[in-house]
Amino acid sequence: MNLDLYKGSGVVKRYIFNPILTKDDIPYEVSTVYNPAIAIYQDKYILIFRAAKLNGRSILGKAISKDGFNFEVEKEPFMVPEREGYFAKYESAGIEDPRITKIDNVYYITYSAYSEYGVRIGLAKTTDFERVERVALITSADHRNIVIFPEKFGDDYVRLDRPHSDIIPWSIWISYSKDLVHWGRSDILIKPKSYHWDELKVGPGAPPIKTKEGWLSIIHGVYMTMSGSVYRLGVALHDLEDPSKILGVSDEWILEPEDEWERVGYVPNVVFCSAALMEQDYIRLWWGAADSVICTGIAKVEDLVNKCLSSKRSAL
Ligand code: BMA
After folding, report:
1. What is the CATH code for 3-313?
2. Which residues of 212-237 are buried (b: 16+ CB within 10 A; e: fewer)?
3. pLDDT, tens digit (0-9, with 9 covering 90-100), for 256-298
4. Which residues line ligand 1 (CB under 6 A)?
């Protein structure tokens, strides 16, 4: 890890040449590019990002890189809303915020599908990032931010959910499945905390990463101010054997909007991470900034684990 390429005194260090992707890098017309997913395929970084077309609806684009900093964007979008059939009915207002989990050489992509019937989560799969196949819509309305663990627990696939409810604040739940399509046994795991930086919402960020100490999960938290909401990143640690057991949720955020392009943009004061990979002793993160551009940075695994265990707050 070349630490000279990063700056900052916080747990997450920012790449000195952020932002790494803006709308000017996209060979088709879009107004913003943000909230990406990441995977390694044939030794290259594949970034599947959200971009808003000039009609305000989102599509998913694809970019490839050797180093995770310099990305080349493919000429055509990777996924656009389906035009006919069952998926079309639920994707008519756009597809957003992808996440990628690799299980047994298949890359599973979850994404938010928007329509007049609310927001649902779609599951798609690919083995080569050329052909992509929709598998199922794996929630009813209204769910967002679903991340699937990259390993099974016994016979079960496991995911973190973020159902929408006006009765309790937006919280992180867990659900189980035998086939990735039918999900159940849902249980609430992490709730927003009043008077904390995440008091309005918490939600899953990037798919959890296995470390010696537990599954590390980058989450987001939202706080409402007099001039709108602020999106920050937090971190939680789940038990290695039983991911429903929370070993710690950090009471402190790990990243907040700070750079000009994180504070000013289409939606000001947003850092939103749905992409993270472990490299040596570090987690590399890619995040959307102000719903306008994409940035990257790193954090030491040890520092993130310490945040969860030494500055804990209750999960519920
Ligand atoms: C959330 C989602 C994200 C977005 C964030 C900030 O509700 O829509 O895609 O980045 O708001 O606008």
Report:
1. 2.115.10.20
2. ebbbbbbbbbbbeeeeeebbbbbbbb
3. 999 999 999 999 999 999 999 999 999 999 999 999 999 999 9
4. 35, 96-97, 231, 267, 270, 272, 288, 291
Q: Which of 213, 208, 178 is nearest to 306 (CA)?
A: 213
Query: Locate tokens 């490839």: which residue?
Result: 64
Nearest residue by C-alpha to atom 7 in ligand 1: 144
Mutation test residue for ligand 1: of 32, 33, 97, the one with most atoms within 8 Å of CB: 97
Rg (CA), the chain: 18
Helix %, strand %, coil % of the chain (to 5): 10, 50, 40
- Evaluate if residue 81 carries a pLDDT over 90: yes
pTM of the shown model: 0.97
What tokens were used for 241?
A: 């054997």
Question: How far, in Å, CA of 184 to CA of 48, rounded?
Answer: 28
Dihedrals φ, ψ of 132, to 5°?
A: -130, 135
Bridging pattern class, strands 133-137 and 228-238: unpaired
**Nearest atom, ligand 1, residue 201 CA:** 7
Nearest CA-CA partner of 97 in 304, 275, 222, 312: 275
Spatial separation of the C-alpha atoms in residues 291 and 105, rounded to whole Å: 31
Q: DSSP letter for 207, please.
A: P
For the chain, the domains span 3-313
pLDDT tens per residue across span 156-210? 999 999 999 888 889 999 999 999 999 999 999 999 999 999 999 999 999 999 9
C-alpha 3 to ligand 1 mean position (Å)? 30
